[in-house]
Amino acid sequence: xxxxxxxxxxxxxxxxxxxxxxxxxxxxxxxxxxxxxxxxxxxxxxxxxxxxxxxxxxxxxxxxxxxxxxxxxxxxxxxxxxxxxxxxxxxxxxxxxxxxxxxxxxxxxxxxxxxxxxxxxxxxxxxxxxxxxxxxxxxxxxxxxxxxxxxxxxxxxxxxxx
Length: 162
Prior knowledge:
By secondary structure, the protein is of the alpha+beta class. The protein has helices spanning about 5-30, 50-55, 125-135, and strands spanning about 35-40, 60-65, 70-75, 80-85, 90-95, 100-105, 110-115. A hairpin with a 3-residue loop joins strand 3 and strand 4 (about 80-85). The chain is globular, with a radius of gyration of 16 Å.
């Protein structure tokens, strides 16, 4: 006898493909109209690569916004990387898709929530490869005093039509 079908995992994998396709589209064509993405992820998830000043500031979760200042989106099956501007300095972030907790495009009232860590990593891209990529990412040695706030959680209900 086999185990039960895990429909929740299957749905999460399918919805994560929406995120991958959206990022691939933006990497190729840019963001249409006023669209923009809020992407929330676990900062301590294996394979996440952030500049030191960001990992010190966001110890558990971080939301990035892809709208005006982002470059070089690379989308692989297991992760994506993107360059963003922080304090007028271009920095590279690498995020495994399994680390995502939310994805939203508030301009079209679209949002998804995920259970970080519940999506299995494809066999073709082991976490060791992600860690190797992360080791090659630009790190910042800036010594910043972190603000009192450790992060901001955005409720996706705010973006849904009532």
